[in-house]
């Protein structure tokens, strides 16, 4: 009696095309931003017809959101893990170091690898895009962990007001964004002494400066504002 081996399931061509589109879209969005990254540029980079982008993702914004849905959970999981580690530290003076690291390190580590470096640039572009709020990507995917981070800061400084906590958090985001978008200016101004592409060194310096700013903040000027 003849027996037949079970045939291996082959990936559907449409599945392969969808993966190619996602992979090709990241560097295009990273380079051009949401508005200037056309579906034609993405389809050419992926080697697929333009119609397949709408077929798989519904629209350019659907594709853009799919990139975040694929990539963002890793960053959020890393931040949550970092915050759990921080909350296990009973000394609030040491805990704030861990809270700041939970914010900074997951983002800076994106600079150290490709294609994650492209996603890092996409995040920074989205943060500064006037249409970001309308798209709601940060609200849906990042804000829940942002709430956890601000709560952790407030726990470290229980006498701070809500305003002081949020000004601190968004100041840290601003500093992080500047370094994430550096394309060589730091190296030029420092005559090559500083290389922002060394993400571990960048994160180390950034965290040390931010923690010092939080711990030694002069509240006398803002406490009643």
Task: Give an overview in words.
Keywords: DNA-binding, Transcription, Transcription regulation. GO terms for molecular function: DNA-binding transcription factor activity; transcription cis-regulatory region binding. The protein has helices at 13-36, 39-46, 50-57, 60-87, 92-108, 116-128, 132-135, 137-141, 143-156, 162-180, 185-189, 199-215. The chain is an all-alpha fold. Helix 1 crosses helix 6. The longest helix is centred in the first third of the chain and has 28 residues, at 60-87. 28% of the residues are buried.
Topology:
Blueprint: H1 13-36, H2 39-46, H3 50-57, H4 60-87, H5 92-108, H6 116-128, H7 132-135, H8 137-141, H9 143-156, H10 162-180, H11 185-189, H12 199-215
Query: What's the mean pLDDT score?
Result: 90
Give the low-confidence spans.
Answer: 1-12
Q: What share of residues is helical? A: over 70%
Tally of DSSP helical segments? 12
Question: Radius of gyration in whole Å, from Cα?
Answer: 21 Å
Relevant CATH superfamily of one domain: Tetracycline Repressor, domain 2
How many β strands by DSSP? 0
Strand content: under 5%
Overall geometry: globular
Under the CATH scheme, the architecture of one domain is: Orthogonal Bundle
Order of helices and strands: HHHHHHHHHHHH
Task: Give the structural class.
Answer: mainly alpha
CATH topology (level 3) name of one domain: Tetracycline Repressor, domain 2
**What's the CATH C level of one domain?**
Mainly Alpha
- What is the first-to-last residue Cα distance? 87 Å
| Biggest sheet details | none
